[in-house]
């Protein structure tokens, strides 16, 4: 085990259980609220541009953190050429996560959106094993597989299948998993920290995204939207922009105190709770016993994982420990990863 890996493990053990739990709860709450707000904007108000909504969230992040840095409320490195090297590939993953996430929110019902998001968990586990060289205790792996199996069961009964929607959500799963793992990796980068990652992620991609929106005609659709004078809609739009910043901060904070996989599982538990609510609110859920059974399997696996992760006396993920009976090392051959790319 390298000195760097040992230091990373030591830092994980220094965080109190309360800090881990509170950061996870903050992330779950933020994620729940923004899904509801975005669903309202994109579905109920039929706002035509999920890309423009993402631009608003990124711009709000830049403005808030710039003001906070100027007032010396927060501190992070000033911009120079080294920033690009330090933060890459997070900006690409960030924009991919934002755009595909908003697109899938618009096209899928809340319950099916939350079910298919469970695939992020298994992807995160594989990426942590491959990129961060993590190994996982068997009991955590079994709980993750239970969540994954529940998602498969629930999705098998989807009566509102849409190929484009499923493509967006699976791409979103890939981007989310990669973003979580690389965020955890970059948190230890000198000069960046939590706020630097958020600020430079947003500022690097907001202009190219705005240009893309203008070039594709997406910006024109957003500007000519008929409800810009509707106070209720504008309030929801502003709330979404602010919650975009809050969500990104909560993800980074949860990743700081926990592992990338734990952050993903917390999101999964929250999503199942949203799915339960979606059965009674929204009117776009097609009930089936198979789907309901799958949701319950997901929730059970998530609760077991949370109990094990937050009540363990040792880190939930241990680097470089092999050969013990209670652990299973996930090893991904180099060749098997060559065909996986994030575009």
UniProtKB/TrEMBL annotation:
> Does the UniProt entry include the keyword Cytoplasm?
no
**Which UniProt keywords are given for this protein, alphabetically ordered?**
Membrane, Transmembrane, Transmembrane helix
| Sugar phosphate transporter domain sequence ranges | 22-306
Where in the cell does this protein reside?
Membrane
Major location, coarse class?
membrane
Q: Name one GO cellular component term.
A: membrane
InterPro entries xrefs: Sugar_P_trans_dom, TPT_transporter
Membrane-traversing stretches: 21-41, 47-67, 79-96, 139-160, 166-183, 195-216, 228-253, 260-281, 287-308
Q: One Pfam family this chain carries?
A: TPT
Provide the membrane topology annotation.
Multi-pass membrane protein
Q: Does the keyword Iron apply?
A: no
Q: Which PANTHER family match?
A: SOLUTE CARRIER FAMILY 35
The name this protein goes by in its record:
Sugar phosphate transporter domain-containing protein
Lineage runs:
Eukaryota, Metazoa, Chordata, Craniata, Vertebrata
């Amino acid at each position: 085990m390298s000195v760097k890996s040992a230091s990373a493990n030591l830092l994980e053990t220094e965080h109190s259980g309360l800090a881990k739990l509170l950061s996870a709860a903050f992330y779950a709450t933020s994620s729940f609220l923004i899904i509801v707000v975005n669903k309202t904007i994109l579905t109920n108000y039929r706002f035509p541009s999920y890309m423009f909504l993402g631009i608003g969230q990124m711009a709000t992040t830049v403005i808030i953190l710039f003001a906070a840095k100027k007032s010396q409320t927060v501190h992070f490195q000033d911009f120079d050429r080294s920033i690009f090297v330090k933060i890459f590939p997070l900006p690409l993953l960030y924009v991919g996560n934002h755009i595909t996430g908003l697109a899938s929110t618009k096209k899928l019902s809340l319950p099916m959106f939350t079910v298919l998001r469970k695939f992020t968990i298994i992807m995160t586990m594989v990426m942590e094993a491959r990129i961060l060289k993590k190994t996982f205790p068997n009991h955590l792996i079994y709980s993750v597989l239970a969540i994954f199996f529940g998602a498969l069961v629930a999705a098998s009964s989807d009566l509102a299948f849409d190929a484009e929607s499923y493509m967006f959500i699976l791409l979103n799963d890939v981007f989310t998993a990669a973003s979580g793992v690389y965020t955890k990796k970059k948190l230890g980068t000198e000069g960046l920290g939590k706020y630097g990652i958020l600020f430079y992620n947003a500022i690097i991609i907001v202009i190219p995204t705005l240009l893309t929106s203008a070039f594709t005609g997406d910006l024109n659709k957003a500007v000519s939207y008929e409800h810009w004078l509707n106070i209720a809609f504008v309030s929801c739009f502003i709330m979404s922009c602010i919650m975009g910043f809050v969500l990104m901060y909560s993800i980074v904070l949860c990743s700081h105190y926990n592992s990338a996989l734990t952050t993903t599982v917390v999101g999964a538990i929250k999503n199942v709770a949203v799915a339960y609510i979606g059965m009674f609110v929204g009117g776009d859920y097609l009930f089936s016993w198979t789907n309901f059974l799958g949701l319950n399997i997901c929730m059970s696996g998530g609760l077991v994982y949370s109990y094990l992760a937050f009540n363990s006396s040792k880190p939930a993920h241990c680097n470089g420990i092999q050969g013990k009976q209670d652990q299973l090392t996930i090893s991904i051959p180099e060749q098997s990863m060559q065909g996986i790319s994030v575009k």
